[in-house]
Amino acid sequence: MLEESRGLPPARRAVSTLKGLTQGKQFGEFAARADCEAGTHFTKRIGLSGAVAGIVVQVQERWDGKGVPAGLAGSDIEGGARVITLANQVEIFHRMEGPEETYAMVRRRAGGWFDPLAVQAFERRADDIFAELEAGSVWEAVLSIEPAPVVSISESRIDELTAALAESVDVKSPYFLGHSTGVARLAEAASARLGLGEDECTAVRRAGLLHDLGRVGVSNLVWDKAGSLSSSEWEQVRLHAYNTERILARSTVLEPLARIAGMHHERADGSGYHRGATASGIPIPARVLSAADVFQALTETRPHREALSPEEAAKEVERMVAAGALDPEAAHAVCEAAGVVLRWSRTSWPAGLTDREVEVLRLLSRGRSKKEIAEALFITAGTVHTHTVNIYEKLGASTRAGVALFAMEHGLVQS
Fold it and tell me: Which long-range contacts (CB under 8 A, 24 or more apart) does 278-281 make?
């Protein structure tokens, strides 16, 4: 609650804190239990030892027995869990209140929340701990002290890891349950329909499982809010895609998925986030993932609306295509993968181009001759000529370079 009320005017902060201590107590305990259970499930899914799981399930316990999930007290709590409980609160308070307030908090909670011996150990090293926290990222420091044997995930187990992460993220809120798995399934099937290679389809599926990893950094008070979000809440929402990318970029195994996963809220017209990229800057796998995320979310209940039927979701996707937000081909493939087939109007393509004209335009942009285009599309050279004339007129272009630039600007060039 300290974290939620930070930055509010004093009066509003007091009200917010009081509300959290009363109305929010039950929810807080529920959330703590859920964190413990989800963390324990995750450690088992990725093959960590039972000893690790035994510590994770107790990190919300308190020395005085007032914690969750089991109400354990004193030495009945694993030593590792006692240290992590203290470390968790120190990091939060130091980030929000500074060293002095953190030091005072630890002393107040000794013998209550925290193991007195753990507090004594902290006091002996407090200056070093604060210096480490203030130095910036502690990522390298943590990895450097990992005891041997170092546990790592091999390439062959990436699918296990991505599935486990997706489950852990989606359990954060009942509104997200199964979301990442659904997005991954749709995105992979749509990628295959678009003719992407096996490796690309696999990458899209894995990115789909991981695309919402950044959600864990945003409070459920935001995700589960039924009313309109404030500007600061929207900023938190917009940052979750950035957080996803940053998290994945930290891993040498998952880094290749970072850019695709981090672009799942980008829009072809530049209205998305977190980059605000336009079609030419969004690779095809990311366009597919974006469309899959939209469709899947529309068919799921949210705090502010009921779930749409697949047909209703497809119509909304079509509206976004017509508005220039989603890639037409990616959206079409996603809808087909979901079992819904719609006839896309010509207005779905920029400049009023038809489906066939877009196919010809792509090949023209690649420098293909009319004969080569005719052979590739199984049409006559005369028909290619007619389409080419129409393309130049609709685009207001007079050279092949002009056509190619238009294709890149509107994301019509397939890689």
Answer: 278/409, 278/411, 279/327, 279/409, 279/410, 279/411, 279/412, 280/408, 280/409, 280/410, 280/411, 280/413
Within a domain: residue 153?
Answer: no
Consecutive H or E run containing 409:
helix 400-409
What is residue 230's DSSP assignment?
A: P
Query: Crossing angle for the helix pair 179-193 and 328-337, nearest 10 degrees?
Result: 110
As for how many domains the chain has, the answer is 3
- Phi (first) and psi of residue 305, to 5 degrees: -160, 160
> Are 208 and 129 contained in the same domain?
no
Residue 47 has pLDDT above 50, yes or no: yes
pTM: 0.73
Cβ-proximal residues to 257 (8 Å cutoff; 6+ apart), any chain = 203, 206, 207, 210, 248
Residue 376, token pair as written in the block:
């590739």
Q: What is the pLDDT of residues 82-95, one digit of tens each?
A: 999 999 999 999 99
Q: Which residues pair with 334 in a beta bridge?
A: none
Q: Give the pLDDT score at 391.
A: 95
Instruction: State how far the alpha carbon of 390 is from the alpha carbons of 110, 360, 365, in Å.
Output: 78, 11, 15
Looking at the structure, tell me whether residues 118 and 228 fall in a common domain. Answer: no
Give the confidence band of 223 by pLDDT, cuts at 50, 70, 90.
very high
Is the same domain home to 11 and 66? yes
